[in-house]
Amino acid sequence: MLENSLAFAQKLDAADPLRHMREQFHFPKAADGQDEIYLVGNSLGLQPKRTETYLAEFLRDWRELGVRGHFEPKHAWLPYHEFLTDASAELVGAKPVEVVCMNSLTVNLHLLMASFYRPTSTRFKILIEDHAFPSDHYAVESQIRFHGFDPAAALIVVKPREGEHCIRHEDLVATIEREGASLALIMLPGVQYYSGEVFDMQGITEAGHKVGAHVGFDLAHAAGNIVMHLHDWHVDFAAWCSYKYLNSGAGSVAGAFVHERHVARTDIPRLAGWWGHDKKTRFQMGPHFQPIPSAESWQCSNPPILSLAAVRASLDTFTEAGGIHPLREKSLKLTGFLRFLLESEFKGDIDIITPFEPRRHGAQLSLNIDLHGMKAKDVQKKLETQGVACDFREPNVMRVAPTPLYNRFEDCYRFVQMLKATVPAS
Ligand SMILES: *Cc1c(COP(=O)(O)O)cnc(C)c1O
């Protein structure tokens, strides 16, 4: 039985097998010099302490070895992205040949759509959701136009039902079945950034494949947050950024997944570059592109090692915590406790739009606030001045995401007490 008290929160922290992981991170300070109550790891993850060491290692290698840094140091630059492969694969439930760290998220979506959105005169539509992250919407629309189609006809947008905030799985499946053979691609998030809803990626992939469409996921809010099995689910492709739950720093190198059954195909066009070319013959500098038979063949350029070092630091921190499974286990308890506290204090006064069922939510709860004339935006601004970091998204949601790597149960308790001081329950 959960209790709404500081003592109980501290008891949960004392029993938490991952509590030592908090020491691995730097915390921004509030005005009073204390650590901020940092509940915005869904937007920008905190800096792991080892990141500085890993970056310094790269700077040292470059300083001392110059061009020999490509081959000689322990973490040589030529294969540097390979040091990230196993941990990345594990995070998303993939085989190592299926993942690569490269570019940024939206760029990866474009590169993958170049391969997997191959519209014909009869099969040309892309299905997205109504509240898609703007970048995803722009990317998809521009792909449609790039191929000479009209988004008015080719873009299928699934909406939540009237008065609801989340999209029902049965509505997605019904739309997929209705569009059938006209559907070329389904592009959905793994976790919806606004509502915090987790989509049934396996069910969507099955439904998509049944009508002959490719299925890709944007895992910006899913990677490092929930457990996934992209390989077993037969997802065609996916991409994710590394600066949200993956704590690799703003704009750091992103990840990409291509299912094993596609990676060695030469009939799939890639927007090619030399880093996607077979490693054995890359430096023969020949004119014919021979793709590496793995997701690496989608790489265009030699990558920014400085940024890959930050990703490696983050992945090592995940590995030290035991990987995504124990983190998800704690995350469900942490977010469950936060929901319990909100419901104890506010009853129905604050509308938590994130689904209740564990398999339908990640770390984040989205609070639709309209209380005593205060909206989500006002509340978030006020809390910010008091050392609480959470965020606001238009039109009216405050997002709160306790992350299991560095948040405590006590943070959830203190947050709810401060929220109560800002907007008293009626
Ligand atoms: C954070 C986020 C992005 C950001 O895209 P970048 O290319 O990393 O700037 C895109 N899509 C979704 C769904 C996101 O949550």
Automatic annotation (TrEMBL):
Catalytic reactions on record: L-kynurenine + H2O = anthranilate + L-alanine + H(+); 3-hydroxy-L-kynurenine + H2O = 3-hydroxyanthranilate + L-alanine + H(+)
Transmembrane in keyword set: no
Top EC class for this record: hydrolase
A Gene Ontology term for the protein's cellular component: cytoplasm
Tagged with keyword Transmembrane helix: no
One of the Pfam families matching this protein, by short name: KYNU_C
Chain positions with N6-(pyridoxal phosphate)lysine modification: K244
Source organism superkingdom: Bacteria
GO biological process: anthranilate metabolic process; L-kynurenine catabolic process; L-tryptophan catabolic process to kynurenine; NAD+ biosynthetic process; quinolinate biosynthetic process
Cofactor(s) needed by this chain: pyridoxal 5'-phosphate
UniProt entry keywords in alphabetical sequence: Hydrolase, Pyridine nucleotide biosynthesis, Pyridoxal phosphate
Entry GO MF terms: kynureninase activity; pyridoxal phosphate binding
Documented EC number(s): 3.7.1.3
Similarity comment: family membership: Belongs to the kynureninase family.
Function: Catalyzes the cleavage of L-kynurenine (L-Kyn) and L-3-hydroxykynurenine (L-3OHKyn) into anthranilic acid (AA) and 3-hydroxyanthranilic acid (3-OHAA), respectively.
The protein, known as: Kynureninase
Organism: Permianibacter aggregans
Higher taxonomy: Bacteria, Pseudomonadati, Pseudomonadota, Gammaproteobacteria, Pseudomonadales
